[in-house]
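Query structure, 271 tokens:
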């Protein structure tokens, strides 16, 4: 091959690939600028929405990576490289990895949903997956609870984000319910008055809504009252336990009997 032929082939290559190379370089620079702008806009959106600080870096990095992958595919396509097979292989590999890590990815997705929509936050008391406790930490794969008896419960976020949950900390006030029984034959009106006085004497019980007291059941061994009172959420358990103790002490002084299950046995003597 002589020099003239080499120069001719080189010239053909330059004229064929030169415009594509220049186009790819232009696409790369413009695309990089667009990716940077979109990533920054996404970060600002997360900031305005108050997204959890532990989640923001990950989401920004994820979006930036996806945009750069799309940019690389676009640049390679501009150069004339066939990307159909590459995308198919990439998709198959992603599917295989997704199936192998289905449980882990479900927990990851659940963690992202929890951190974005915030059904609860650190410090809230929740009832979820059969456990009641305060939220100590929200991780990307798990949520850590601390129970009242100081146990650490680790709950995977996948199930936590897809099941029912009770958050006791979202509302300022909570209703305390009691079932209080008196013996048959005791004065019902007097029992109501005593319960009302005990509620009025506790400053933690709110005046509005008013305390509800009513006979709810004529049970086997007792006449039962349903008592409902509203308190600040932080006072719930204190009011609940104190009222039980006060009812027990006061009923005895007022001549009201707190019944317990009993059975009368009658013996007949045959003559």
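Result returned for the query:
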């Amino acid at each position: 091959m002589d020099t003239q032929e080499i120069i001719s082939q080189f010239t053909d290559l330059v004229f064929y690939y030169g415009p594509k190379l220049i186009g790819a370089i232009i696409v790369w620079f413009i695309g990089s600028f667009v990716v940077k702008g979109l990533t920054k806009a996404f970060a600002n959106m997360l900031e305005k929405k108050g997204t959890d600080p532990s989640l923001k870096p990950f989401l920004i990095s994820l979006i930036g990576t996806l945009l750069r992958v799309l940019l690389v595919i676009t640049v390679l396509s501009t150069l004339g490289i066939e990307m159909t097979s590459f995308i198919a292989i990439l998709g198959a590999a992603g599917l295989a990895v997704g199936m192998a890590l289905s449980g882990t990815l479900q927990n990851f997705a659940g963690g992202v949903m929890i951190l974005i929509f915030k059904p609860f936050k650190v410090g809230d008391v929740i009832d979820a997956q059969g456990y009641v406790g305060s939220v100590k930490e929200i991780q990307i794969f798990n949520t850590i609870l601390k129970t009242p008896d100081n146990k650490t419960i680790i709950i995977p976020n996948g199930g936590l984000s897809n099941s029912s949950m009770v958050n006791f900390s979202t509302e300022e006030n909570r209703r305390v319910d009691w079932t209080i029984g008196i013996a048959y034959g005791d004065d019902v009106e007097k029992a109501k008055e005593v319960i009302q006085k005990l509620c009025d004497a506790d400053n933690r019980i709110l005046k509005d809504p008013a305390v509800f007291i009513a006979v709810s059941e004529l049970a086997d061994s007792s006449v039962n009252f349903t008592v409902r009172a509203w308190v600040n959420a932080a006072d719930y358990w204190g009011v609940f336990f104190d009222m039980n103790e006060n009812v027990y002490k006061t009923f005895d002084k007022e001549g009201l009997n707190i019944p317990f299950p009993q059975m009368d046995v009658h013996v007949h003597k045959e003559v």
